[in-house]
Amino acid sequence: MTSKKKDKGKLIVFSAPSGSGKTTIVRHLLNIEKLNLEFSISATSRKKRGEEINGKDYYFLSADEFKSKIKSEEFLEWEEVYRDNFYGTLKTEVDRIWKLGKHVIFDIDVSGGLRIKRKFPNETLAIFVKPPSIDELKIRLKKRKTESDDKINMRVAKASAELATAPLFDVIIENDNLKKALKNAENTVEDYINSK
Description:
Elements: E1 11-15, H1 22-30, E2 37-39, E3 43-44, E4 59-60, H2 63-71, E5 75-82, E6 85-90, H3 91-99, E7 103-107, H4 110-119, E8 124-130, H5 134-144, H6 149-163, E9 171-174, H7 178-194
Parallel strand pairs: 1-7, 1-8, 2-7, 3-4, 8-9
Antiparallel strand pairs: 3-6, 5-6
């Protein structure tokens, strides 16, 4: 990440427990031209779900490929979310977006979001998307029909710990009303991009 200062964009991190609606919010913001955002595609060692496309939704790597990239320090941040289930942001991905003259928007887990904020405190706006409740979160995850009950229970258990980190973020957006949450996110990001 050796970009000259003037061609560096800003980093906008959206983190939340799984099922909070952060992906919906990020997709909405990407469609707003004036924000000049480009999505940071994460790398993962998990299997593809449904219609996911390599290089569009994620960079799908094997666990061994992922570990090899960790060794050669190719990640801006990474985490083993569950055993042998890695997620991370490749340094080349942020460089790619900055070279386009755009701001980077992340849809990543809480630990990854906080790591980016710590590494780039002056360029990063870290936003936590908060679900109305843990019960609502469980309902949303079940509605997805993409995971087993065991996996859902694991995510719900993790969500309690993640909710405790909310105060460490710059902004908390509660997603109890999607329309309101989208508008709130839009205004927050626009204000940040227009600030010095």
